[in-house]
Predict the structure.
Amino acid sequence: MNDYLENLEKGQEMFLNLSNGVLSFEKLNPQELEVLIVFVQHLNILYNNTKNGKEKSNELTGNLIKDIEKLIQLYSPNGKLSYDLPDRIIKMYFHFAGFNTLEEVKTYRNEKLKQAEQRNRNFALQDLKIEVGDFIKGIEKIDYLHNILQNGSLAKEYLGASANSDSTPLDTDLSRILEKKESIEKIIEQTPSSGYGPIYFYLKNDERFVVTREKQGEDKNCDFF
């Protein structure tokens, strides 16, 4: 989401500078050109998922400037071209969540990041106590840690042509702690995650997890565990 919002903002700024002659298309470096290409692709995908876009999809020509100009016209609420495109995108796709401008989304994101950082700092001052209802996930190699922290735990099913699956569909191999033991090691040993170690993620149950089945065969809604 951060990358998406940043591209939306930078792409719009670059297009305006190109239109005003502040930037020259021929002098764009590879990084700037990539920002503009992704910007056009984002706009086009979003438009083609609108009601009008589904009725008649927009096809890109490969001419970035002309493609952006056309998309700006397609997104225009009143046919005029002088409007804030990022705010228009936010209002169209984020209005249901209470956002109408890009700045509102950025402010909300930054505030949530501050809250999460403070919550984590407070948690780090406490002794580690694994409680019943918490979760453990084991990974085999330290090499995986950076990618998981950066991109999340990617399931094998999403890895393209070489995709396959393991024993837990969509990589949902989290073990729920059902019983306390005398040590953290003993707690981990009683879970299936112990076979995926020796590195473990500990997920504190903060009451946002929805338990849909307590015992085998007792379905409350659908199976997550």
Remarks:
- The chain has a mean pLDDT of 82.
- Residues 161 and 181 are 43 Å apart (CA to CA).
- The first helix runs from residue 2 to 19.
- The first strand starts at residue 135 and ends at 139.
